[in-house]
Specification:
Elements lengths: L1 H29 L4 H13 L1 H12 L3 H26 L2 E2 L2 H22 L3 E2 L1 H29 L11 H36 L3 H13 L1 H12 L3 H26 L4 E2 L2 H23 L3 E2 L1 H22 L4 H37 L1
Helix pairs in contact: 1-2, 1-7, 2-10, 3-4, 3-7, 3-10, 4-8, 4-9, 4-10, 4-11, 4-12, 5-10, 5-11, 6-10, 7-8, 9-10, 11-13, 12-13
Length: 358
Amino acid sequence: MVFFTFAAGIALLVGGAELLVRGASRLAAALGVTPLVIGLTVVAFGTSAPELAVSVKAALAGQSSIAVGNVVGSNIFNVLFILGVSALVAPLVVARQLIRLDVPLMIFLSVLLLVLGLDGSIGRWDGALLSAGMLAYVAFLYFESRREHLNQREPGEPPPPSGRAALLGNVVLAIGGLLLLVVGSRLLVDSAVTTARALGVSDLVIGLTIIAAGTSLPEVVTSVMASIKGERDIAVGNVVGSNIFNIMAVLGAAGLAAPSGLEVTGAALRFDIPVMIAVALACLPIGFTGGVIARWEGALLLGYYVAYTAYLVLAAGQQESAVLLRSGLLYFAAPLTAMTLVVLSAQQALRGRAEARG
């Protein structure tokens, strides 16, 4: 029965996100914004709606570890798994705007989450700060994209059509998707808590793994399909935008909803949030290596996600090998990868300068 409830929750979340994204994407297209901005906002926010529903529900129920673990785990999953799989399907071109603005913002927010959590909780003032930042970010993207679109449009070109009937239909789709998300999140959280208690696994680990992966399924489907169809701005923008949305909107709303704030455990501060920061930092040099996330880089990201998940499973079972795996990731694999990416980025920069002089 628990498995059926969990599966039903996932199905409703994915179905709801699909309806939400479909309706919202058409609304955004009518506003005349770029595919990258659609990926960073409408698609990213729509596919992150499950995280929002699950984390707010968990916060109201007093299950802070699930709310925080869901966001941190989803951000790790988004970069390592989704970008990894999408890059394996087809190398992903990274737009300059992502490297200049959105990826640095994602890194800043990841570090900010660590700073805000050092006192042991994400309180209502923290939630208000994050929520206000989200509104400012969306407003900036919208007005900047509109300005760029107006500059690029030919004189006399008519605006995109937006009939009243079509507009109403898309609004209904989005609202229907939101309703499915609310019901699905309730089923998912209830079944996950039951599973955690039955297996003796902490809420944090459940949030970091099962719920994080389950609520990120819309991002998986969206980014992989966008990669297959050649819409690579949407594939990468979806992941980066989802991570930004998760920290500012999801944790912001959950922090405002939680009666006594969201508890941030010592385990999350010592390991999981630093891993999230490291994963965000990895996006910057990857973006510099030719402006493309190559297949080998995708395989590397996917391999790290497998190792991270293996560590969580071993640590939950209190296996000694978990300590060895953690040490290997922190002191060998991660520094070696960072050094490799920095060297490749430096080589790319030197090559670019040489071409500019030639």
